[in-house]
Amino acid sequence: MKRILKSRRAWFAVAAAATVGIAAGVAAAVIGDGGVIYACYDAKDGKLRAVESSGACSAKEGTESWYTKAGSDATFGLGYFTGRARSLPALGVAGIAAAPSGLSDAIAISSLSGDNARTMLTPDRPVRFRDLVARLTTPSTFGRQIALSVGSATINGGVLSCTIGAGQSECSESGPSPEIPAKSTLYLFIGGSGAEPTGADLLFSWRATAG
């Protein structure tokens, strides 16, 4: 464990140096599009290697990334998001839509097109979603699918999702999601397999990271 921590701390130092231009040679080799540094690390010994994209890591490796631009731009659009979808309507075959953050009234997914109150754009650089947690104020009768969805107004657009089982009220998924393109349309999808009682609220939270 100490070896892993030392290796990863050393990489953080390299990332910081690249940010201010001290390690210009390293920065030129590892900073990808949008000013993001990507690295893969060995889960056994913590050794890191620089790569050009987050998809370059093997299945046996973990991933790390650091956004190198200074100032408020370094964290704009990133961090934790929370929300509450109020008064879920009776579940239709196509599902329900709600805003991916903040307070909103859930509507039928068929009414989502052109509804700016329940959609938002992702930041102007690629991001990933992580740590989705959802909780119903009333346990589900048949089960609910909860998904952060991009683009298409169906469960097929889901990029990070979890399922609340029948008789349960909570679910979670750590992720990460696939890389989400800049300025993608995002909304919360709520689906299921049967008619649910109306009036329940859905509380949820998730996190956006640079890689």
Brief characterization of the structure:
This protein has 211 residues and is mainly beta. Helix content is 12%, strand content 38%. It has helices at 2-20, 24-30, and strands spanning 36-42, 48-51, 61-67, 79-86, 96-98, 102-105, 107-108, 120-121, 128-136, 144-150, 158-164, 170-173, 185-192, 202-209.
Describe the structure.
- By secondary structure, the protein is mainly beta.
- Helix content is about 10%, strand content about 40%.
- The protein has two domains: about 70 residues, no CATH class; about 130 residues, Sandwich (Jelly Rolls), CATH 2.60.120.
- The protein is built from two helices and 14 strands; from the N terminus they run ααββββββββββββββ.
- Helix 1 packs across helix 2.
- The N terminus is likely disordered.
List low-pLDDT spans.
1-30, 152-156
Structure classification: mainly beta
List the total number of helices: 2
- Tell me, what's the shape? globular
Quaternary form: single chain
CATH class division of the largest domain: Mainly Beta
End-to-end CA span: 24 Å
Q: Main β-sheet: number of strands, strand sense, barrel status?
A: 6 strands, antiparallel
Number of strands: 14
Beta-strand share of residues: 35-45%
| Alpha carbon gyration radius | 20 Å
Measured as a percent range, the helix fraction is 10-25%
